[in-house]
Amino acid sequence: MSDLTRMTATEIAALVAGGETSAVEVTRAHLDRIAEVDDRVHAFLHVDTDGALAAARAVDERRAAGEELGPLAGVPVAVKDVLATRGVPTTVGSKILEGWRPPYDATIVQRLRDAGTVMLGKTNMDEFAMGSSTEYSAYGPTHNPWDLTRIPGGSGGGSAAALAAYEAPLAIGSDTGGSIRQPGAVTGTVGAKPTYGGTSRYGLVAFSSSLDTPGPCARNVLDAALLHQVIGGHDPRDSTSIPQPMPDVVAAARLGATGDLTGVRLGIVSEFVGEGAETGVMTAFRESVDALTKMGAEVVEISCPTFAYALPAYYLIAPSECSSNLARFDGVRFGLRVGDDGNRSLEEVMSLTREAGFGPEVKRRIMIGTYALSSGYYDAYYGQAQKVRTLITRDFTAAFEQVDALISPTTPFTAFPIGARTADPYQMYLADLFTIPTNLYGGPGISVPCGLSEGLPVGLQVMAPTMADDRMYRVAAALESAVGTFTPPAL
Ligand code: GLN
């Protein structure tokens, strides 16, 4: 049953629950697909064949025993290598954690296991989730299944590529400035960044703690919502987790799929539809706006003037937090240790380990962050960026007094060729121009495929108020019902 890899998560779960296929069969089909294509795609850093088959067998046994299975039981999922997985290598795309097998599961991973999903393995990513193309992985780049010479986005390019290459029907990503939505956009898949605090950070290797948000990736909106529901909700182990029930994102996705947006008010962010985006991206976006209007949505333009300062503010706040968070990688506690020959001091071993273990982009950020936080510069850089963050939040709040959700293209450009932007960090940073404001504000954002430009996927972003994740699913599902899903050429 080789077409198991082409099915949605919803379809797979129904077949498993109905006994028409087994979780083991589904898992084998995806492991076979990985074996067939992943030497070209390189979506995975680690494939956990034995663990996946054991998890699948457990689901089949529970079913045979008459136990009631959850809505995603037996469905394979690929997990970004930023989440701790007990006994399974967790590298964050970095040499500094090579060989580390965490002694515990991240809350999200635990919830995936409890729900009976089957973890296939860990996906490739830019080192420490810093990047927009997966080219900064210490283990080599991932290739976009739409065109293997192009990037799959980043930092979660592995998760997005695994979906587009039919290696997994579901995946987990993490979004600090766009790393779920931007890879979703350039691979023609769906990526949702939940409200900050709506998904647990316990066991998520920290990059920028006030921004990091793990979330679901899928090939369609309903599957993303089902995954969101499984992984989301309050976690007492994360002090920033929101102690409130989360909105019913699955019901919202189902409602949206009816294609009726009567009474829904949408605001196009004026600042994001000017010269910033490629022509082909803008054409697909404009056509989608027409489709949303036809479904009954009222669409207006809204100016959010401070969004223009989001990128510079982010590139002070994120490096500042990373410079502090990454201090723990000292060669003592986990992963790599270099130069410990019995003669060197602790400081020397730490310094040699960090020199060898971190790549150039990570070092650049640690240096920028350390500088921005240093005495004498703190107010001018970090303090100023925090003020800008407050202004951006005010722009969101004011916009949401007029509209239910904001929309924009997800990215200014489609997937670029591997190597095209690595020489100039600023060119790489621009990939997140439209996604970063959401992270600074803390609200939810989703990217949903909205068309093609010269044969490459374009994403539309829906941004909603904090804890109104259901709204973005409704709009995204409605758009999907109008434009359909997009299939890459055969690999
Ligand atoms: N590309 C952005 C960065 O490099 C965002 C990364 C992310 O969301 N993890 O920081």
TrEMBL record:
It comes from the Bacteria. The gene is gatA. Residues 25-471 form the Amidase domain. GO terms for molecular function: glutaminyl-tRNA synthase (glutamine-hydrolyzing) activity. It is an enzyme of class 6 (ligase). Keywords: ATP-binding, Ligase, Nucleotide-binding, Protein biosynthesis. It catalyses: L-glutamyl-tRNA(Gln) + L-glutamine + ATP + H2O = L-glutaminyl-tRNA(Gln) + L-glutamate + ADP + phosphate + H(+). This is Glutamyl-tRNA(Gln) amidotransferase subunit A. Allows the formation of correctly charged Gln-tRNA(Gln) through the transamidation of misacylated Glu-tRNA(Gln) in organisms which lack glutaminyl-tRNA synthetase. The reaction takes place in the presence of glutamine and ATP through an activated gamma-phospho-Glu-tRNA(Gln). Belongs to the amidase family. GatA subfamily. Heterotrimer of A, B and C subunits.
